[in-house]
Amino acid sequence: MASQAFKxxxxxxxxxxxxxxxxxxxxxxxxxxxxHHSISLATSQQTTPAYLSINPNGSLPSLVIExxxxxxxxxxxxxxxxxxxxxxxxxxxxxxxxPLLPGSSQIRAxxxxxxxxxxxACDIQPPQNSRIRRKIVEEFGGDGEKWARYVxxxxxxxxxxxxxxxxxxxxxxxxxxxMADVFLVPAAQGGLRVGVELEKWPLMKGVVDACWELEAFxxxxxxxxxxxxx
Length: 230
Description:
48% of the residues lie in helices and 9% in strands. It has helices at residues 18-30, 49-52, 84-94, 107-124, 130-140, 144-165, 179-193, 202-212, 215-220, and strands at residues 6-13, 35-38, 62-67, 79-81. The chain starts with 5 loop residues before the first strand and ends in a 10-residue tail after the last helix. By secondary structure, the chain is α+β, with helices and mostly antiparallel strands. 34% of the residues are buried. The chain is globular, with a radius of gyration of 18 Å. Strands 2-1-3-4 form a 4-stranded mixed sheet.
């Protein structure tokens, strides 16, 4: 399916969602026109019946793909994708330039990009997201932000070690922006929000600073206001 087959791409997003920021950054890097629909977490808009009909998980982002109508299939239904890795796979497949994932012939680079991406997507973002933090506070009387700092600091330490052992470059993997950077920068911004100091991991901070020089990261990052610290 070519990109021309899409009439419109609707992104349901919110400014301070790291997962949403991944999609915004990738879309800016690839110059993909998205129609943005802002969902207010402050008013719990993500839990309303209207939004749950789009995404039963009540999470962000969601991408609704409106197909181009054609005479051969005039009743095509919209396609909804609700997890950022799946959305990014869709964007990478149908809008391949510039590529954010090295090709299959680049075995080492591709593996490292997917490894770093998975580190953020599995071990850093989910354990400390806002839903988990609220549970820690409301049901267990704990300190949600302290827990988040622990998760970020542990994860960033691992990311730094991968960078130290990997192929040095301006970005996470070599000299071109990849999916790893698209995942890293919003996570770094999330760490800054809870008081984590990125200077503890100089290689990682160097990558974040290099990415932040690019307009796509400043426009699509947390807060969407061009400041590294949300």
